[in-house]
Amino acid sequence: MYEFVAPRIRIILEQSSVVPLEEVRLRVNQPLTVKSRGRYCYLDEQGNTTALKQAYRVTSDDLMRTVQILTNNSWYAWEEEIRSGYLTVPGGHRVGFCGRAVLYGGRIKTIHSVSSLSIRVARQIYGAADGVIGRICPGVGKVRSTLVISPPGCGKTTLLRDVARQIAAAGIQVVIVDERSEIAACHQGIPQLDVGPQTDVLDGYPKTEGIMTAVRALSPQVVVTDEIGHPDDAAALAELARSGVSVIASCHGEDVQQVRARKWISECLGVFELAVVLSRRQGPGTIEQVLSLGRRT
Hints:
This protein is α/β, with parallel strands linked by helices. It has two domains: 2-120, Beta-Lactamase, CATH 3.30.450; 133-292, Rossmann fold. The chain contains nine helices and 16 strands. It has a seven-stranded antiparallel sheet with strand order 4-3-2-1-7-6-5. A seven-stranded mixed sheet has the order 12-9-13-14-8-15-16, sandwiched between helices. The protein has a two-stranded antiparallel ribbon with strand order 10-11. Strand 3 (39-43) and strand 4 form a beta hairpin. Helix 6 (207-218) packs parallel to helix 7 (231-242). The termini are far apart. The relative contact order is 0.12. The model has no long low-confidence stretch (mean pLDDT 92).
């Protein structure tokens, strides 16, 4: 990941003993901030964690040079992807852009005057799904539709990725509808993370269109998608169930009761047989509950 940041920032990060590195935040005239084990801290010029006043201040040149490296000095070549707010680079690392939105016809055309970058470091955790895969896959060729529930930052996407990998390794045809390029972390359409040998990835597809494309064109046995959050998602998931396709999906929430309180999600819970509830109580990916929901089709 260090090769994608400005030289001065790279030197600081290489000297730092903060591990594992989860995020790097670059804000013009603000302290260099990193995240590790769910906590943010500041770094000084030697890469040491420090108080706010002693932290290295990111310069406009640091930010400009980082953007040049990320885009290979060709902003326009990446403009389509950047206007969605982020860019995925080789290795699966994801960079969020903040700046001034340029609108055309009421929609974002591009982003100018970038003022900050949020670099999320991609990490694959093999075996992240080991604690639940036996419940999700109770027998040869059998996959239970499963909803993964957790607050942000508790490992939903990491779990989905490993479930997809393990299911595909068992010979099951998997399609990932990766609306925000987070599960497979595609760069130029190619997955940068291991999602299994029999997995197809619909990268950047809106969920509804991606699910319909999967059913019509790719003959999946299982569809995996992240963060359902719109009433249209419920209709698409119901279509999957009617087609005999299992679905592994995630949504934000503290527990099943909180999810049930949202009317549209409650209506589509009948698609799922299991709910897996995650937290950070013992670190990201802590499995709090695995609940049977039954299934109505």
